[in-house]
């Protein structure tokens, strides 16, 4: 069995700051020079698993008294078995790698405690790329929902619902990792690392003598290649309707009227739900703002710039013409997307119907793609296709959600329920994999399939 290794690091925050006017301030960009505008950078103490996407961060004010033992015990005692009921992700490591910036700040009693609970430790030496990569994960934009607390109103301040440091840190305990985005390889590592016989020794976490850690960092004089200079910041206040969301800081804000009409917001919101698994391929600034948008249940888009909004219309296929109208010399997207894929598993029948009517309308060709397996119960997904002049629309849904009802009835008008295209089982499964790995070129072949009427002799497609 491999050793469980965790990395402990500390750094100055480049996205989260303290403000006397607004409370805890979050910015989607990595920004530099915030002190000139009255914002105070916070300190991040973070711990990560080596080789696994598990990251735990806590924020502190500079020179604040921190108990490193409590920080580690909180993380080691967190049981993440919600997504892995047979493989609880928790417990202390075999070895703790400590960032060298902490070496002289940690008290001797801390190291004595690690030895007493049989945790080896070592320090990084010089520039450690592996630790640097893990440390960058703690600079992620912290998403704060309201599932685990009730926002508190404040009277007499610029911000009516200021985010507090306690709320921010408590929310981080529920964002340690997301199992839905794990690859098959990483899932295998989880099962090997946290096997069914693995039982964290909670009794070994006790610490009678707790040490004190105080951290102070100075802001770099020049921004790094990933940072943007703070310019003309604007505070976007908290909103209550339609869903509560905390305020956030906008950089390079332009108060001019929008030059782009925010059209098709309802349709865009549905399309974003159906393409959420594709967000990982989007630019980082869009990914951060999309997580904020998800908190509002895709009903608010004021966190996006005009260019961001146009980009989303293009990426989701809602309105690709807008992109080329406003980007005459488009380089990042030189042509229209011809194959568009949507995961309808979590959409309602009404939402599927609206998305179909808006995107497809009256297709030239439409059919269901099925496997040649005789036992249909073995299938986990359904695949519906519509072809227009240049574009192919593919709708995929998990069978257990039974969203095929939208296509079997009158909800998706002009879909031909009597036509199917039969493909080899291996081809069908590869098509599903291609869709969910965003390899749309590999799945585009479905537009050339020859469908048949149900109950007629099938013509199979074999790769």
In short:
The protein is an alpha/beta fold and 463 residues long.
Describe it.
Strand 4 (40-49) and strand 5 form a beta hairpin. The protein folds into 3 domains: 5-205, 2-Layer Sandwich (Nucleotidyltransferase, domain 5); 260-335, no CATH class; 339-453, hypothetical protein tt1805 (3-Layer(aba) Sandwich). The protein contains 13 helices and 16 strands. The strands form 4 sheets. Strands 1, 2, 4, 5, 6 and 7 form a 6-stranded mixed β-sheet that branches. Strands 11-14-13-12-15-16 form a 6-stranded mixed β-sheet. The radius of gyration is 26 Å and the shape is globular. The longest helix is centred in the middle third of the chain and has 12 residues, at 284-295. With 463 residues, it is α/β, with parallel strands linked by helices.
For the structure shown, list the relevant keywords:
single chain, 463 residues, alpha/beta, Nucleotidyltransferase, domain 5, hypothetical protein tt1805, 3 domains, six-stranded mixed beta sheet, globular
What's the CATH architecture of the largest domain? 2-Layer Sandwich
The share of residues in helices is: 10-25%
Biggest β-sheet description? 6 strands, mixed
DSSP helical segment count: 13
What's the CATH first level of the largest domain? Alpha Beta
Number of domains: 3
Which structural class do the helices and strands define? Answer: alpha/beta
Number of DSSP-assigned strands:
16
Beta-strand fraction estimate: 15-25%
Radius of gyration: 26 Å
Mean residue pLDDT: 83
SSE run = EEEEEHEHEHHHEEEHHHHEHEEEHEHHE
- Could you give the distance between the termini? 40 Å
């Amino acid at each position: 069995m491999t050793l469980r290794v965790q990395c402990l690091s500390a750094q100055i925050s480049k996205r989260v700051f303290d403000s006397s006017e607004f409370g805890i301030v979050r910015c989607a960009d990595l920004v530099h020079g915030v002190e000139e505008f009255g914002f105070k950078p916070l300190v991040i103490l973070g711990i990560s698993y080596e080789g696994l996407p598990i990251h735990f961060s806590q924020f502190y004010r500079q020179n604040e008294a921190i108990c490193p033992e409590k920080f580690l015990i909180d993380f080691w005692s967190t049981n993440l078995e919600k997504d892995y009921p047979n493989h609880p992700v928790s417990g202390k490591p075999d070895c703790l790698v400590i960032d060298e910036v902490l070496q002289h700040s940690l008290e001797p009693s801390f190291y004595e405690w690690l030895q007493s609970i049989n945790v080896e430790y070592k320090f990084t030496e010089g520039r450690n790329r592996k630790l640097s990569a893990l440390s960058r994960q703690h600079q992620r934009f912290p998403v704060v929902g309201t599932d685990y607390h009730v926002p508190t109103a404040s009277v007499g301040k610029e911000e009516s619902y200021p985010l507090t440091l306690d709320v921010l840190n408590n929310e981080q305990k529920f964002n340690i990792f997301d199992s839905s985005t794990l690859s098959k390889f990483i899932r295998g590592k989880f099962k090997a690392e946290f096997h069914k016989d693995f039982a964290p020794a909670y009794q070994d976490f006790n610490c009678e003598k707790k040490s004190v850690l105080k951290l102070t960092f100075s802001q770099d004089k020049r921004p790094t290649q990933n940072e943007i200079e703070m310019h003309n910041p604007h505070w976007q206040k908290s909103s209550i309707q339609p869903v509560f969301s905390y305020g956030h800081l906008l950089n390079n804000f332009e108060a001019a009227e929008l030059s782009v009409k925010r059209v098709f917001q309802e349709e865009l919101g549905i399309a974003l739900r159906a393409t959420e698994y594709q967000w990982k391929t989007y630019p980082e600034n869009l990914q951060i703002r999309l997580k904020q948008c998800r908190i509002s249940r895709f009903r608010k888009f004021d966190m996006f710039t005009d260019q961001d909004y146009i980009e989303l219309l293009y990426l989701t296929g809602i309105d690709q013409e807008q992109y080329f109208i406003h980007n005459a010399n488009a380089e990042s997207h030189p042509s229209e997307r011809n194959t568009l894929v949507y995961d309808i598993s979590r959409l309602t029948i009404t939402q599927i119907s609206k998305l179909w009517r808006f995107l497809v309308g009256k297709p030239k060709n439409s059919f269901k793609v099925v496997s040649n397996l005789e036992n249909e119960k073995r299938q986990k997904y359904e695949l519906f296709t519509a072809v227009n002049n240049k574009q192919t629309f593919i709708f995929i849904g998990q069978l257990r959600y039974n969203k095929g009802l939208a296509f079997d009835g009158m909800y998706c008008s002009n879909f031909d329920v009597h036509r199917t295209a039969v493909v080899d089982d291996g081809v069908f499964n590869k098509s599903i994999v291609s869709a969910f790995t965003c390899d749309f070129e590999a799945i585009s072949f479905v537009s050339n399939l020859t469908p048949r009427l149900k109950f007629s002799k099938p013509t199979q497609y074999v790769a």
